[in-house]
Write the structure tokens for this entry.
Amino acid sequence: MSRFRKLPLLCTIIAAMGASAFHADAAQSKMAKPPAMSEPLTSKELVKIYGNHSWIWKDGAGYFAVKQREFKAWTGEGTGSYGAGHWFVTDPGKLCFKAMWYAKTGKANALTCFSHRKRGNTIFQKREPDGDWYAFKTSPASSGDEYRKVQSGDYATARFDRMRMKLSQTR
């Protein structure tokens, strides 16, 4: 596939992820700079949050398997897309996943990263490189916490498989 055909696909996938998957509720307070007096989460803390958990999005979900650090996700119930790859954590406090994303129009690689910091009992998150910091997990918990969308177990693979089958029939 030519670069020019990959670009619209990648833009569509990133837009879907940004619009439905990875944005905090509008009510959350956002900051351009990291919270004062905060420190990055450790790799161990990030694995505890995401390992064998699903991040459930407005229009999709991603699963972070501990075994071989496998990542599977799907977005968009309609035409949709799905991604398969691996996730990893780096110090200081960064979660990344690299996946090949497939859609009706083709496929494209994407690397997505989120930084995490904590201050007291609050965890802050931002999408790299240009996202804003926001409260990801608060204590006591808030109904708007993005962390509430991170659930133990695999809530992505079944729809991932359905999306893969659906898209393979359109080729």
